[in-house]
Input
Amino acid sequence: MSDTICVGTISGAFGVHGEVRLKSFTADPEAIADYAPLTTEDGSRSFDVQITRPLKGGFAARLSGVRSKEDADALNGTQLFAPRDRLPSLPDDEYYHADLIGLTVVDPGGVEIGTVKAVLNHGAADLLELIVPGASRTVLLPFTLAAVPTIDLAAGRIVADPPEGLLE
Output
């Protein structure tokens, strides 16, 4: 498991005074500021976060060291990470996306279906993007209790019962 978790992303500048558009991935979106200082994926930069106002799909925020629109624009697409030990512990049926990526997915009989490439959410519900052995495309598996009844982080595997026809 990773020592850091992606908690948000910067989606460009907001205005001309160095504010950024910030999209939060935390359960309570405003709590992203509570986990600061946040770092870039490689750890080369660190930012304190002050949310200034809500925006559609996120927040306007001030980040330490970001003083101009050009500074903010240069950070467009930057993911922000917080140390795992600063984040709240999760109930038994919730998982950090970072913990699921790379897990082997097997069917109820133990036959390997694939590996989790990403966890996606396009508004309705989470989907597991699977790399399927021998296939040139990925498959999207609904991340529901019916389709994914068992997650065993310790064993590094997910037991899935995909909807009929999904893997064809």
